[in-house]
# Entry
Amino acid sequence: MKISDFQTKDVINIVDGKKLGQVSDLELDLRQGRIDSIVVPTVSRFFGMFGGGNDVVIPWRNIVKIGADVVLVRLDDAKAYRTEESEGGGR
# Structure
């Protein structure tokens, strides 16, 4: 699977059925050679064009299923997952 394939899939939280958005980026663990987490921008930051906003960083362990059109994730409390702004980093 290519990164571009990931970016066309909607990310859905199976806990509440909400669409979180689409994958904008991946965080890699270069030492282990694996994907560490996926990054989904908030609605206000779609394609990085509209103002500020936070990216939701979803750990790989929270991915339940990767389908043809969607990525299903389990987020019991979406606010508990770190965001780009709360990490103090920028891209």
Q: What stands out?
A: The longest strand covers residues 34-41. DSSP finds two helices and seven strands in the chain. Residues 3-6 form the longest helix (4 residues).
